[in-house]
Every structure is written in structure tokens, then in C-alpha cells.
From TrEMBL, chain A:
Protein name: Coatomer subunit delta
Main location, first listed in the record: cytoplasm
Function as written in the Swiss-Prot or TrEMBL entry: The coatomer is a cytosolic protein complex that binds to dilysine motifs and reversibly associates with Golgi non-clathrin-coated vesicles, which further mediate biosynthetic protein transport from the ER, via the Golgi up to the trans Golgi network. Coatomer complex is required for budding from Golgi membranes, and is essential for the retrograde Golgi-to-ER transport of dilysine-tagged proteins.
Species of provenance: Brassica oleracea var. oleracea
Pfam family, one: Adap_comp_sub
Quaternary data: Oligomeric complex that consists of at least the alpha, beta, beta', gamma, delta, epsilon and zeta subunits.
Sequence segments annotated as region (Disordered): 219-246
Family: Belongs to the adaptor complexes medium subunit family. Delta-COP subfamily.
Entries under InterPro entries matching the protein: AP2_Mu_C_sf (IPR036168), Coatomer_dsu (IPR027059), Longin-like_dom_sf (IPR011012), MHD (IPR028565)
Biased composition range(s): Low complexity: 236-246
GO BP terms: endoplasmic reticulum to Golgi vesicle-mediated transport; Golgi localization; protein transport; retrograde vesicle-mediated transport, Golgi to endoplasmic reticulum
TrEMBL record, chain B:
Function comment: The coatomer is a cytosolic protein complex that binds to dilysine motifs and reversibly associates with Golgi non-clathrin-coated vesicles, which further mediate biosynthetic protein transport from the ER, via the Golgi up to the trans Golgi network. Coatomer complex is required for budding from Golgi membranes, and is essential for the retrograde Golgi-to-ER transport of dilysine-tagged proteins.
GO CC annotation: COPI vesicle coat; Golgi membrane
Record organism: Brassica oleracea var. oleracea
Domain of life: Eukaryota
Keyword RNA-binding (UniProt): no
Name this polypeptide is given: Coatomer subunit beta
Length: 524, 948
């Protein structure tokens, strides 16, 4: 099961590229590769050669040979797999499949080979993965760079402000006030910190970036003053000592100077977009609200989903319409129409229209429009719950370890997930050992907020672990959760609008919004 | 061991990269140029040009680069660069790299982290690794599996370094923890591998606590599990029981690679019949399910290994093995048949023959190419079966006789040889075979098959009716007599004139050939017997087959027809009471013979009858005219007897071979007997128990060095300089397969220190120096060893020459001592080998290079001379000893050898004893490449004089 080397040689025996995966002397590998072309027989229908000591498994690629040198005990099936993989990679990296082309791409090929074989063992990778690994495009690095940039900008802002202060203090000084001394000292320390942050720029851990991200939550609107009491998460990877302390120092000292640090990148709030005044003639809103109580030891204590479909019409003239909908066909869901809606029409054709077709739908900009349909679902098993939380406090010594994990159902992609865990009143932030996503501690309300921007297929489950002084485990409940999703239980969709008057047959333009919101989602 | 080499890249020396240019590009800001320059720097480094000033440039300008490609190339550069000084201490500059590596290990880009960790796997210097260990450990918990995977491997490699276990005291523990939580299959595999290599008990524990889940694990992890089991069971055979269950469960895994590995493991662990059976079954299943030829062939290799160890179990599976015949590949079919033939017993012979028969029938229907060759293989296999178990002969012989008329000459020949043997060994079948043969004789189209079939008819037609129908068949096949009519004769004068020159031109242009008896001839006695690859015979069915052949000029056949008729007539005389009938037949036979002679001398035949055939036919005519008892005895009995003798001799040699085979496998009477159980308990030597896999790997990487005889070693010392030279040097030359190692001992004979002493070597021929020479300084009257490696790429005599250059303190000029030449002997590269006669002859015809050496020797005896040549060229004589027995004044023999590079060397020796007692003749050497022909020729010229 050991690949000694992966090589490309020319038909004449010229070694173009070879990468060895075990220790072997140069003369040995050159000897093995030089012997190979002489051993290749013509007209054979198999592509391996065994010699006294090694086995060659090869594949001709136009005028070249791609070959693996393996031990004789090696697993041929696996080696052939590896060879197949490599042969797919060669044309990906080499422009032309001749000696010149290979020469030009020699190093790229070596990098690619390295991804397929590690220490002589085959890695299970696909061509796409190898390409991705070789391109080395890292999302985290980009974010890191962005954060670095914003840091630099922030520091520049601070510098400007400081400069203003200096100006002010100068003015005060000219007034003969002695109080300027302290501000001078704080000023100099501020500059020191700044210079550190520039010099050690590369050492900011990725954790600091996550800390920034936590401010991008949509709820930032309600907490203008909270940033002072809340502690942002320290970097997850403990990084280099100097870098870590440098960063903390910067933050700390900035805070000590009474600076309100706005690290926010502009929050793009979804709710605001929903509220924005409609410009389309018809707006249909499908909204489901979840009221769920999960038991801490598993199972559902209560489940209630309420959904509404509301219609908002901009102009009076457009009021004569009917709405064609389509439901997901979930038998658990019972639909109720507004009393003014023609029930038979709905039951038979899934069309929502008024009982008296000569009346228009009410119009107007205000409010959420007219409710057309309501539905609810009250029975659900655990598999239907979008997010389950598992919280395990365990006391050991004079500490309580709490590990929380979430598991999201594959039905929904959840956005802006915030899991709030009540904690005993603590002075300091709890020690978070590990966290997928990021966290913040609100000392005023003693709540640890664990936020995940998006839960999709890449992170259907995640966990967090933190340590607090010993307390009764019931303190950590109820855990409340907030999130939103764009798909619903009912799967209700508006497929079209049917104009009743002035018909040119053209379907009027309409906008449809669909969302699922956790209204009261708790683990008790 | 030499420094290990991790990569090779072809470097075109035509475009020399100047260090200065590289330096400038590295210092610049252009990323593209930097990448190019880095690549060049790496290639220069690979070619042994360590430009030391580049290193600092790279540290200053490349290390801080943000570009990913540059960082990766930098890692390659660091991988190759010499990191220690001559005393094995780490260079102080390397601490600069450490800083960079540490930053890389904490880089936000996960891929940078990953490749850096991968680079650490290849680092050997503990001093460099040490400061990085905390960062490596952090990466074990990185979010991205790519990083974790490589981090685990890095931990493993560092742990394996000397003193590495002190760097990471708790590494196994940590990895075990990581393993239990890890989700990524690749990282999990690596973690398990780490435990396996560094802390076997932990790996075993983990395995045993997860026994139930093993079958759900990832394929790559399962492979490592199997490897672990193998290794554990080698050291602690007592615990085997625990693992067998795991292996059995893995036998039903989805991945065929795992299944294959399982079977291999099973065989290595246990020799219990059930286990072997399960393994063999698995191999057979894979043999059917895998479509790849490579896989099939290797599976067949495994099966034949099993066969040699556990024949009794494999016997049960013979039918499964034979199913592999469904593959269209000839190599696979051949291997399958080889295995199957060894497994035949009384119980399964019928089944096997049934199956083979079915296959033979199949070859008739489908019109696939190579069907003919396959059929030939099958016929040979059936032949072998019938020889082993004569009772099956009756069931197959009739089927096979259908193929006498096969268009593939080789398989038809095989059939006829088979029939000939069976008819002698199975007297019961004689009657039915003869009847059948006479029925199908007209179908035989090949000129080489007819004589044999005729011989059978002549020998084995015993009863009256048989003899009569035999004569009738021959007559029928010859058609109407005479062979050509006068009307035909009137015109041919011109056509024959045309034909004549062309045919003679054809004969004269024919290349010299080697005959079956080893003689070297420019013109064969019977032109039809040229040994060409099987040809397809054409011919119309309407005219008799014998007639067609005769008309094309096959007079050898004519002679055989004549002999057969003579025999039949003589026999008829015995069984036919009526004298008139006999006389009638005699006249008919005489008419036929005379017509053939007439044809041979007429211009209608493509070329005139050769003397040999002519004489033979005339002899037959004479005999028929003057029949006597003595002649009768010779013709009717002696022929048969000599055939019987031949068959029994053949059987004897086969028996002898079989005996020799069984003898070699047996242990010698005074061999040590190993008691495995005693050995492991005593813990005598771990070495002896060492893993087969490890051996395999070591052998492959060339670490295996055989202990050679010291006396042998001393024989090969070459003195390079004189005793009175200021520097004395001698070399010990070791010839490995692909390389030559020179170990040069240099002794300073002066009272001064030699500075900048350098051993400069140059080569001639297909040799290449691997490294550049280094400078040394040598204190007064001390000695030192210098090693040099030389690569050999083909079999050819090579010369290494060189000189030693040095400086002394008071004379500021360089002194040069010229060394004796070292001749590399071709004999080190060729070894005796065996090939079939047919293969020898085809190669002889194909190869382009011939070297002809006239015999010039003092040796008087032909055999002695041949032995001398064989000994001095290290070749194998292909000609059977019986063929060169006796004193006749002539000797012809073929020699064959193969070089380690797989090149063939063919030699033909043809000598004749002159009247004055001296030997004369030629030795011809043929090979595909010029090198072998030339150097072997030189060698023979040098050595042929004899021992004197």
C-alpha cells in the first residue's frame, strides 16, 4: 500500500517529473526510472511490470508515461485508482501532453500529486478538490484581510479623533489649565498601541475576525449601548503570544479611554427590507411563526406553527384579482380562509377570490395588507423541528462544564441564529473552550449569546463548550433561540394572479415574500 | 544511507540560469518573475548547484511574500536545501526559516497551513522542528479538515524522528483523542495510521473498542486496519483469534481494494483450510468481477502463490479459476491455464476437460483475432491433461482432430503431435483415431502438418481395410495423375523462365537463418521449413490438398508421401492374401512416385526437386521393386521403435525435471529447523520476525544490502596510482544493478597537508557521474575514503578515468596525479537466461546488430571450446546437450543471456574441425543495441584464445 514515487517519463526514458513519497537515494530512483522504458513491452494488454524489487504501474499518455513505482506487496486495486486519479490531473495542469508541456508545469504537477498521495498513502480526493486545494483560495484569509483593512481604517479614525483632542487640549492648555497632562499620557499610549497593531498585523488570529462578525447581527439596532457591557470573544486560536496581547491591549486601552468602538460593517437588515415601502402593485407575504418549547432531555413539549398569507395591493384599480396558490400538500396543516373569501373556489381550485367578485380587495399601503388565509400546524415530531438544542452541564471540581450542541434539520437553511443561554450572574465572561460560530456575553442580563450567521448543509450541527463556576444545571434553562428561514412548513406558493377586469390576459406583476420566524422558541 | 531525494524535475542544461539573474528576479516585485526565479533556483539545487548566496536573498525577499505559489515553491526549496553542515549540525541560518514556518502555521489561509504541515513531514532535523511543535499541535484542532489531516501526519513524522518522542511526549494520547472525535475520513485514517506506527497498543485498543463499526468505516481506514492486524499478528501470534472476525467482516466490504487486502491478510495470518479457502474464493470472485487486466494478472499471481503453498485447497477451486478464461487477453488465459494444469487431479479431470473442450468449441464460432493462438494454448493444455491422465484422451482426441485442418498452422501442428503421441500410448484408441484421421485427412492444408499425418497413417494402418483405405485416401488427395499435362507443358517454357529468376532471387536474398539443430545456414535444405511465424494457408478445397502442396514445390512432402506409400505397401503384403491385389497397389504407388519425380524435373514446378527428396523417392522406388525381409523389418518396425524410444525419453526427462523440482523445495538434511513458537517466546531476534512488508519496502528503496564475501571484495580492488606517487589511491568497485559504487581509498604519502584535494572522474560509454566531486584536505600520512556513484543506463563496456588534483602549502600550484582507467566489465550485467528456440530464432531475425568474430583459438576440441566460450561470456547454452554429443568435427550451438536492463544477447557458435586439428568457424553475436554486440564481441575476441 505504499507508493514510492509518482513520475512522468518520456518514451525515451527521460525523467520529466518525479515525486518520491518515501526516503530513497537519488541514484536509486534514477536507476528505477531509467530501467522502466526498457522493461515496457510492446503490444502487452496490461500496464504493470514487476521486477525483482518493485512494481511499476503505468499508463501511457500520448508520448509520455505516467507511472507509479510501488512495492510488490502493494494493493494493485488501490494503485490503479491512484494512477487513474493522477492521469486525470495531468491534463488539468499541463497545457500540452508532451515533454515541453510537462516541463513547464512540472511544479504545478508536483503540487497536485502531493494532494493525491500523502506519505505514500492514497488520499480520497476528487479532481475538483485537488484543484481547490492547489488554488488555495481561502475564504477565511479574505475575511482576515478585510478585517485587517477595517482595523487599519478604524485606527486611522481613532488617530484623527485623537488629533482633534490634541487640538482641543492645546486650546485648553493655552487657557492655562493644568489638566492636560493626563490626556497626553493616554494619547501616547494610544499611539503605542497603534504602532503595535501595525507592526504585528499578520498575527491577528481568525478569532478576532469572528468577533467582528458578531456585530453584524440584525439585532444590533436595539443595542447601541450594549457594546460597553458586552465582551467580544477572545480569539479562538490562541495565536502567538505577542499578537494576542497586542490585540487585547489595543481593545482594552481604547475602551479605557472611553472610546466607543464601532466595528460594525454596515448591517444589511432583512427585516428592514421587508418593511420598505412596496413599489410593486401586489405584494404577497407568506409568513410562518413558530412557537416551540423543546424539553431539555429531548422531545417536544409544545409545538405551534401559525402561518398567514396576506395580500397588499397598492392601487385601488388593481383590486379585482384572484390569487392562484399552490400548497406543499402537508396533511398536518389545516387551512382557514378569511370569511370573505370564496371557500368553494379555494377548495376546488386553490384560487383565492372574494365571495362577491364585483368587490375589489381592500387596498392601501399601511400595515401588512389583508389576510387571506391562515393555517396552523400543532403536531410535529422531533424530526420536524428545524433546530434541536442539546445542553449538557456537568460539574467537575469547582467548575461546571457546559457543552451545547445544535442540530439543524435539513429542511431549512437558517439565518441569523442566536442561541441565548441564561447564566448565573457572573462578573466575568465565561470561559469558552470551543465554539462553532461566535459568541458574546451580555453581563447585564447574564446571557451568553451564541450566534451563527447561517446554518446550511455545511454546518448542520455545531457545538460550543464553556466553563462557569459551579451552579445548578437548571440555571441554564430556558434557552431561547431566534432564527429565520426562507422556506416554510406549508410550502405555500403563489403561482399567479388572475385579473378579473380589464383582462388583456397579462398576469400582473407581483412580489412574494416568504419567511419562517421563530417567535418563541425555547428549550425548557 | 545516501541523502534521500524527494523530487526530480527535468532540467534542460541548454539554458543556463545565471545566479545573478535569479537573484535580481527574486529581489524584484513582479510575482510572475519571482515564481519563475524560484522554480529555477529549485532546479539548480536539484542539479547540485547550491548557490549559497541565493539563500540569503531568498530569506530576505521571498520569505515575506504573500503569494501562495511562491510560498509553496519556497517550501520545496527548503525541502531540498542542505540544512546541516558537514558535521551534521543544523546551520544557524535555519532559525530564520523557523520564524517563517511558524507564521505559516498560524496563517489565516488553511491551505498555507496545510502545505506547511506537509513540509514538516519531510523535515529530518529535530532542531528546526522543535520550536514549531506548539503550533503544530494547535492545528490539530483547526476547523478545516485539510489542516487537521496534515497536522496529524506532521505529528506522526516528528514523533518518528530521533528523540521525536521527547518533543511530543503525549502525542499518541492527543491523537487518540482526536481520533475519537474526528469526522473527516482522511484525517481519521491519518490519525489511526499515526497510532499504528507510534503506539500500536493504542491503535489496537481503539480498534477493539470499535469492532462493530469497522465495517462501516471508510475504505482507506479499513486498509490501515488490515495493515495493523497484519503487523500485530506477526509480533503476537497468540492474539490472532481476536482479529480474524474483523477480517471476515471486512471480506464483505464494498470496496474491492479492501476485499483484496483482506484476502492477502487472511493468507498471511492463518494456514487453516477455511481461511485459505475464503481467501482463494475472494480472489476468484475478484477475478471475475474486476475487468482490469492488470488486476486479473496480479490476482492470478496471488492464486498461483496460494497454489504452491496450499495445493489441496486450490484443487477445489479449479473450476472457479478456469472461469477467468472468459477474458479475451491471452496473457491472462495463459496464466489461468498454467495454474489450472497444476491443479488437475483424478477427481476434477473430467470437469476440467469438459470446460476446456467447451472453450475450444467457442474459439471456432467467434471470429476474434488471436483465436488461433488461444486455441493452440487450449490444445496444449488438453494435451498435457491427456498425458497426465490417459483415460481422458479418448474423450478429447476426436474433438481435437477436427482442428487438423485448422488454418492456424501452429495449433494444427500441436494437434497432430498430440494425436501421434496418443495413438502410441493408447493402443485402444488406435482404430478409431486412424479411421477418423483418414476421414479428415483431406482437410489438412498445411505443408507442415501433412508429413506428420502421413507418418501416422503409414505407421498405424494395420488391418487390411485400413491399409487399403489409407492408400485410397492418399491417392484421392493427390488427384489425377500425372501432375501436369503436356498441354500445360507447352506454354510454361516462358512462364517458368520468368518464375525461375524470381524464385532464385528470393532464395539468395533470404537472410541467413539458424536451423532447429543450431546450424547456421544461408539456404535451407527445404525452403518450406523456414521458421516463420505461423502462416495462414490458402488453397482451394476442390483439388486435393497434397496435390496443391506438391504443385507449389513442396518436394519434401513428396518424399514423405513416397515413404508412406512404401510402408503401406509393405504392410499390405503381410495382410493381403491375394498377390494380385498387392501388385496392383505396388504399381499404383510406383506410378505416383514416378509422377512426382517427373514433376520435380519439369519446368512446371516453381523450382526443381532438391537432391534429398529426389534420393528418398528413388530409394522408395528401388525398395518396392526389390522387396526383401530385412528392409521390411527396418521400415515396418525400427521406425516405430525409435518413435517409442523418443516418447519414453521425453517422459524420462519430464520425470527428471519433476524430480529436480521437488528436490529443490525440500530442506537439506542438515538445515536448521525453525520452530516458530519457540522463537517468538524466546524473543530471540526481532529481526527475523520483521514484517514482510517492511522488507518489501526496504528492498524497493534499495536499503537492502547483501552481505558479500569479504574475500570476494578483495578480489575486486583496483590500484589507481603507483606506490611511489605522492598520493596512493585504490578503488573497490561494486556493481549494483543500475549503478556502480566506487569506494576510493586515498592515502597521503607525503609529509605535507594536501589541500583542496579533489577526485575528478570522467566516464566513457553509457555511464554518468551522479554527484560533483568535492574538495577535501588530507593531513600528512593519513588516509580517507571517498565514495562516488556512477549511473549506468545500458549494458555496455564502460571506462572510468580520472585524476586526483591537490594543492600543497608551499607550492602554490595544483598537482595532478593521473589514475589508472577502471574498466567496467559487461559480464557484470548479463546473466544466463533461457528462451524457447522459436523465440530465439525470431529475435535473431529481428535484431539489427550483428558482430561476427572469427574463431582463432588454441583449443583443439570443439566441446571444450564451446564450454570455454560459455564460461567466459556468462551465457546459457540453449542447444540441448544431446545435440552436441559425439565427435563429428562439427559443432553448432546457440547461447543466450539477458542483461539487467532486459536486453537480449544472442550468440551462435558454428565451428568445424580442420584436417590439421585446429578449429575454425565463426561466432556471431546479435543484439538490439550496438553496445551489447560490440562489447560482447570484444570480450569474446579477448577470451577465445583459451586458458593459456
Amino acid at each position: 500500500m505504499v507508493v514510492l514515487a509518482a513520475s512522468i517519463v518520456g518514451k525515451s526514458g527521460k525523467v520529466l517529473v518525479s515525486r518520491q513519497y518515501v526516503d530513497m537515494s537519488r541514484i536509486r530512483i534514477e536507476g528505477l526510472l531509467a530501467a522502466f522504458p526498457k522493461l515496457v513491452g510492446m503490444g502487452k494488454q496490461h500496464t504493470y511490470i514487476e521486477t525483482e524489487n518493485v512494481r511499476y504501474v503505468y499508463q501511457p499518455i500520448e508520448v509520455l508515461f505516467l507511472l507509479l513505482v510501488t512495492t510488490k506487496q502493494s494493493n494493485i486495486l488501490e494503485d490503479l485508482d491512484t494512477l487513474r486519479m493522477l492521469s486525470k490531473l495531468v491534463p488539468e495542469y499541463s497545457m500540452s501532453l508532451d515533454e515541453e508541456g510537462i516541463n513547464r508545469a512540472a511544479f504545478e504537477l508536483i503540487f497536485a500529486f502531493d494532494e493525491v498521495i500523502s506519505l505514500g498513502h492514497k488520499e480520497s480526493v476528487t479532481v475538483a478538490q485537488v484543484k481547490q486545494y492547489c488554488e488555495m483560495e481561502s475564504h477565511e484569509e479574505k475575511l482576515h484581510k478585510l478585517v485587517m483593512q477595517s482595523k487599519i481604517n478604524d485606527t486611522k479614525d481613532v488617530m484623527k479623533r485623537k488629533a482633534n483632542e490634541i487640538d482641543k487640549s492645546k486650546i485648553e492648555k493655552t487657557r492655562g489649565d493644568k489638566g492636560g497632562l493626563s490626556s497626553m499620557s493616554s494619547l501616547s499610549s494610544g499611539f503605542n498601541d497603534m504602532s503595535i497593531s501595525h507592526g504585528r498585523g499578520s498575527s491577528f488570529g481568525s478569532g478576532s475576525m469572528l468577533g467582528m462578525m458578531s456585530d453584524v447581527e440584525p439585532i444590533s439596532t436595539k443595542a447601541k449601548d450594549r457594546s460597553r457591557s458586552s465582551v467580544t470573544a477572545p480569539p479562538k486560536s490562541s495565536g502567538m503570544k505577542l499578537g494576542k496581547s497586542g490585540k487585547n491591549q489595543l481593545m482594552e486601552s481604547l475602551k479605557a479611554e472611553g472610546e466607543h468602538i464601532i466595528e460594525d460593517v454596515k448591517p444589511t437588515s432583512q427585516t428592514r427590507a421587508a418593511v420598505a415601502p412596496p413599489t410593486d402593485p401586489f405584494t404577497l407575504t407568506v409568513e410562518e411563526k413558530l412557537n416551540v418549547a423543546l424539553r431539555r432531555d429531548g422531545g417536544i413539549s409544545s409545538f405551534d406553527m401559525q402561518g398567514t398569507l396576506s395580500l397588499q395591493i397598492l392601487n385601488q384599480d388593481d383590486g379585482f384579482v384572484q390569487v392562484q396558490i399552490e400548497t406543499g400538500g402537508n396533511p398536518e396543516i389545516l387551512f382557514k380562509t378569511h370569511p370573505n373569501i370564496n371557500r368553494e373556489l379555494f377548495n376546488s381550485e386553490s384560487i383565492l377570490g372574494l365571495k362577491r367578485p364585483d368587490q375589489p380587495f381592500p387596498t392601501g399601503q399601511g400595515g401588512d395588507g389583508v389576510g387571506l388565509l391562515r393555517w396552523r400546524m400543532q403536531r410535529a415530531d422531533e424530526s420536524m423541528v428545524p433546530l434541536t438544542i442539546n445542553c449538557w452541564p456537568s460539574v467537575s471540581g469547582n467548575e461546571t462544564y457546559v457543552s451545547i450542541e445544535y442540530e439543524a434539520s435539513s429542511m431549512f437553511d437558517l439565518t441569523n441564529v442566536i442561541i441565548s443561554v441564561p447564566l448565573p450572574a457572573l462578573r466575568d465572561a465565561p470561559m469558552v473552550k470551543q465554539c462553532d460560530g461566535d459568541w458574546r456575553y451580555d453581563s447585564r442580563s447574564s446571557v451568553l449569546e451564541w450566534s451563527i450567521l447561517l446554518i446550511d448543509n455545511s454546518n448542520r450541527s455545531g457545538s460550543m463548550e464553556f466553563v462557569v463556576p459551579p451552579v445548578d444545571s437548571s440555571v441554564f434553562f430556558p434557552i431561547s433561540v431566534q432564527f429565520a428561514a426562507t422556506s416554510t412548513y406549508s410550502g405555500l406558493k403563489v403561482t399567479g394572479m388572475i385579473p378579473l377586469r380589464g383582462g388583456g390576459g397579462a398576469t400582473p406583476r407581483f412580489v412574494q415574500r416568504t419567511q419562517l420566524i421563530a417567535q418563541d422558541y425555547q428549550v425548557v | 544511507m545516501d541523502k534521500s531525494c524527494t523530487l526530480l524535475v527535468h532540467y534542460d542544461k541548454g539554458t543556463p540560469a545565471v545566479a545573478k539573474e535569479i537573484k535580481e528576479a527574486l529581489e524584484g516585485n513582479d510575482v510572475e518573475a519571482k515564481v519563475d526565479a524560484m522554480k529555477k533556483a529549485v532546479m539548480l539545487l536539484l542539479n547540485g548547484e547550491t548557490i549559497p548566496q541565493l539563500f540569503i536573498t531568498i530569506i530576505r525577499y521571498v520569505l515575506p511574500s504573500e503569494d501562495h505559489t511562491i510560498q509553496k515553491l519556497l517550501l520545496l526549496y527548503l525541502e531540498l536545501i542542505e540544512k546541516t553542515d558537514s558535521r551534521g549540525k543544523v546551520l544557524p541560518e535555519m532559525i530564520l526559516i523557523c520564524q517563517n514556518l511558524r507564521n505559516n502555521l498560524q496563517h489565516p489561509n488553511e491551505y498555507i497551513r496545510g502545505v506547511t504541515l506537509r513540509f514538516l513531514c519531510r523535515l529530518k532535523e529535530t532542531e528546526i522542528v522543535e520550536p514549531l511543535t506548539p503550533s503544530v499541535l494547535q492545528n490539530l484542532e483547526h476547523r478545516h479538515p485539510f489542516v487537521r489531516r496534515n497536522a496529524i501526519l506532521a505529528v506522526m513524522s516528528i514523533y518518528k524522528l530521533p528523540n521525536g518522542d521527547q518533543l511530543f511526549v503525549d502525542a499518541p494520547e492527543m491523537i487518540e483523542k482526536a481520533l475519537s472525535t474526528e469526522q473527516d475520513p482522511s484525517a481519521k485514517r491519518n490519525a489511526f495510521l499515526m497510532l499504528f506506527t507510534c503506539a500500536e497498543e493504542r491503535a489496537v485498543n481503539y480498534l477493539l473498542s470499535n469492532v462493530d463499526k469497522v465495517s462501516d468505516w471508510n475504505e482507506s481506514l479499513q486498509m490501515v486496519v488490515l495493515e495493523l492486524i497484519r503487523s500485530v499478528c506477526k509480533t503476537k501470534p497468540a492474539e490472532k483469534g481476536k482479529y480474524i472476525k474483523i477480517i471476515i467482516s471486512l471480506l464483505s466490504a464494498t470496496s474491492s481494494a479492501v476485499i483484496y487486502e483482506c484476502a492477502g491478510t487472511l493468507v498471511s495470518l492463518s494456514s487453516a483450510p477455511t481461511a485459505i479457502r475464503a481467501a482463494a474464493n475472494t480472489y476468484c470472485q475478484l477475478l471475475l468481477s474486476q475487468s482490469d487486466n492488470n488486476v486479473k494478472l496480479i490476482l492470478l499471481d496471488r492464486l498461483s502463490e496460494l497454489k504452491s503453498l496450499h495445493r489441496d485447497i486450490m484443487v477445489e477451486l479449479i473450476i472457479d479459476v478456469l472461469r477467468a478464461l472468459s477474458s479475451p487477453n491471452l496473457d491472462i488465459r495463459k496464466k489461468t491455464l498454467d495454474i489450472a494444469l497444476d491443479l488437475i487431479t483424478h477427481h476434477n479431470i473430467n470437469e476440467v476437460v469438459q470446460m476446456l473442450k467447451k472453450e475450444v468449441v467457442k474459439t471456432q464460432s467467434g471470429e476474434l483475432e488471436k483465436n488461433g493462438e488461444y486455441r493452440q494454448m487450449l490444445i496444449q493444455a488438453i494435451h498435457a491433461c491427456a498425458v497426465k491422465f490417459p483415460e481422458v484422451a479418448s474423450t478429447v482426441v476426436h474433438l481435437l482432430m477436427d482442428f487438423l485442418g485448422d488454418s492456424n498452422v501452429a495449433s494444427a501442428l500441436d494437434v497432430v503431435a498430440f494425436v501421434r503421441e496418443i495413438i502410441e500410448t493408447n493402443p485402444k484408441l488406435r482404430v478409431s483415431i486412424i479411421t477418423r484421421l483418414l476421414d479428415t485427412f483431406y482437410q489438412i492444408r498445411a505443408g507442415k502438418v501433412c508429413p506428420c499425418a502421413l507418418w501416422i497413417i503409414g505407421e498405424y494402418c494395420l488391418s487390411l481395410s485400413e491399409v487399403e483405405s489409407g492408400v485410397a485416401t492418399i491417392k484421392q488427395c493427390l488427384g489425377e495423375l500425372p501432375f501436369y499435362s503436356v498441354s500445360e507443358e507447352s506454354e510454361p517454357t516462358e512462364t517458368s523462365n520468368k518464375i525461375q529468376p524470381t524464385s532464385s532471387a528470393m532464395v539468395s536474398s533470404r537472410k541467413p537463418v539458424i536451423l532447429a539443430d543450431g546450424t547456421y545456414a544461408t539456404q535451407s535444405a527445404a525452403s518450406e521449413t523456414t521458421f516463420s511465424t505461423p502462416t495462414v494457408v490458402q488453397g482451394s478445397v476442390t483439388s486435393g490438398n497434397l496435390r496443391t502442396l506438391l504443385l507449389t514445390g513442396d518436394f519434401f512432402l513428396g518424399a514423405v508421401v513416397a515413404c508412406t506409400l512404401t510402408k503401406l505397401v509393405l504392410r499390405l503384403e503381410e495382410v493381403q492374401p491375394s498377390k494380385t491385389e498387392v501388385n496392383k497397389t505396388v504399381t499404383q504407388a510406383l506410378l505416383i512416385m514416378v509422377s512426382m519425380l517427373q514433376l520435380g524435373q519439369s519446368p512446371a514446378s516453381p523450382h526443381p526437386i532438391d537432391n534429398d527428396s529426389y534420393e528418398r523417392i528413388v530409394l522408395c522406388i528401388k525398395l518396392l521393386c526389390h522387396r526383401n525381409a530385412e528392409m521390411k523389418k527396418i521400415w515396418l518396425e525400427s521406425c516405430r521403435q525409435s518413435f517409442v524410444k523418443m516418447i519414453s525419453e521425453k517422459q524420462l526427462t519430464e520425470m527428471a525435471e519433476l524430480k529436480a523440482k521437488t528436490q529443490t523445495t525440500n530442506a537439506q538434511p542438515d538445515d536448521l529447523i525453525d520452530f516458530f513458537h519457540l522463537k517468538s517466546r524466546k524473543g530471540m531476534s526481532q529481526l527475523e520476525l520483521e514484517d514482510q512488508v517492511q522488507d518489501d519496502l526496504k528492498r524497493a528503496t534499495g536499503e537492502f544490502t547483501k552481505d558479500e564475501n569479504d574475500g570476494n571484495k578483495l578480489n575486486r580492488i583496483l590500484q589507481l596510482t603507483g606506490f611511489s606517487d605522492p598520493v596512493y589511491a585504490e578503488a573497490y568497485v561494486t556493481v549494483h544493478h543500475y549503478d556502480i559504487a566506487l569506494e576510493v581509498t586515498v592515502i597521503n604519502r607525503t609529509k605535507e597537508t594536501l589541500q583542496n584535494m579533489c577526485l575528478e572522474l570522467a566516464t566513457m560509454g553509457d555511464l554518468k557521474l551522479v554527484e560533483r566531486p568535492q574538495n577535501y584536505s588530507l593531513a600528512p600520512e593519513t588516509s580517507m575514503q571517498i565514495k562516488a556513484n556512477i549511473k549506468v543506463s545500458s549494458t555496455e563496456t564502460g571506462v572510468i578515468f580520472g585524476n586526483i588534483v591537490y594543492e600543497t602549502s608551499n607550492v602554490m600550484e595544483r598537482n595532478v596525479v593521473v589514475l589508472n582507467d577502471i574498466h567496467i566489465d559487461i559480464m557484470d550485467y548479463i546473466s544466463p537466461a533461457v528462451c524457447s528456440e522459436a523465440a530465439f530464432r525470431t529475435m535473431w531475425a529481428e535484431f539489427e546488430w550483428e558482430n561476427k568474430v572469427a574463431v582463432n583459438t588454441t583449443i583443439q576440441n570443439e566441446r571444450e571450446f564451446l564450454d570455454h566460450i560459455i564460461k567466459s561470456t556468462n551465457m546459457k547454452c540453449l542447444t540441448a546437450p544431446s545435440a552436441i554429443e559425439g565427435e563429428c568435427g562439427f559443432l553448432a550451438a546457440n547461447l543466450y543471456a539477458k542483461s539487467v536492463f532486459g536486453e537480449d544477447a544472442l550468440v551462435n557458435v558454428s565451428i568445424e574441425k580442420q584436417t590439421d586439428g585446429a578449429l575454425s568457424g565463426y561466432i556471431r553475436i546479435r543484439s538490439k543495441t550496438q553496445g551489447i554486440a560490440l562489447s560482447l564481441g570484444d570480450k569474446i575476441t579477448l577470451k577465445q584464445k583459451g586458458s593459456s
